[in-house]
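Fresh eyes needed here. Kindly weigh in on this sequence plus structure tokens:
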Amino acid sequence: MKGMWWKLLGIVLVLYAIIGGFLMPVPSMPILNETIRNTYFHIPMWFAMMILMTASLVNSIQYLSSGNLKKDTLASETINVALLLGFLGLFTGMIWANYTWGTPWTNDVKLNGTAVAILIYVAYIILRGSLQDEHRRAKVAAVYNIFSFVMMMLFINVIPRLSGTDSLHPGNGGNPAFGEYDMNSTMRMVFYPAVIGWTLIGTWIVSLRMRINKIENKLFYD
């Protein structure tokens, strides 16, 4: 039970976010209306994804400096879970867009950049899986992971701000982010625990995948 507290905390926080997300009052905003409740799901999932991808980047750098294959495995499994959260974030975002913009997808520089960034990480999984020699695979994957993170930052944070075009997505193209005008104290009471909760759940899944990987390797070498 000693190492279970953070897992239980993750479950409690996500359940709290789900219940609070549907039941607690939210600001009445034109166009958004009740869809603003998706703030508790779409954005925290993306925050958790970004945190896990940053952790994966750190593990790849540590592998390149130490040659420890466990760091490569941890980087890979973290990306797998981060992509799961990323796809969930895309799905909830498309539902939100369909209600507020009238279509699940638009030719928006932020959205297109996000899709490209996700595909770059999918290519990481494919590339890593195509290499047989574990040391060569680890080196190539680590270098590509660093490249992927840099490209993600460019496509999601830099290019949308430099494009000079208006964006429907909050926080870009002159469209203010939620925190600047409508995330009140009640919403923050749910939003921040949701970010922590999804991050902990993602970390838990990574730890489970690492244990499964360890068992598979033991069976293979035995």
